[in-house]
Amino acid sequence: MSESLPQRWSQATVYPDMWADPDDDPRTSDGGTPDGELATLDDFLTNYRLTLRMKCEGLEPEQLARRSVPPSTLSLLGLVRHLAEVERDWRNWITDGDPEPPLYGGRGGDFEVRGDAEEVERAFADLDREQAATDAVLAAHTDLGERLGKDQIAVRELLVHRIEEYARHCGHADLLRECIDGRVGQ
């Protein structure tokens, strides 16, 4: 590899192994932990969604589109597009109607990125829209044991699966970001 590797760094000053100092971290709340299972699941999902966005902050479109290790197509921008796609897919699981079509074409299309500013803006708008749409559908179903859709998936299972998906991809985002500019943190 002819490129030099970026120097590892953190923006945090209080705890150098963190992404941001606690006072600057939007995931930190002074209100303590939520009460109840649904509120706890929603809190975890919200925090992982914020983490993904934090890992993408401050990067140029080309950096967001930079692939990890060939032949992998994994990139931060690809992760954003992928999570928009899976939000739509999860909604398709729990509806009785016809499924909505994929956002980015066939299998793997979410990771086929160019890395221009328009594409980045559109990807984050897609993610916002798809998250809001899935959240709106699930807001009508507060019984975590309720089963939805043709396959009768429990609301709890869908929420836990969403958390798992975001958590796994936030781990990927940690490594991708470190490869791009050396920034590390929780």
Automatic annotation (TrEMBL):
This is DinB family protein. It comes from the Bacteria. SUPFAM superfamilies: DinB/YfiT-like putative metalloenzymes. Residues 16-37 are annotated as: Disordered. InterPro entries: DinB/YfiT-like (IPR034660), MST-like (IPR007061). It comes from Aeromicrobium camelliae.
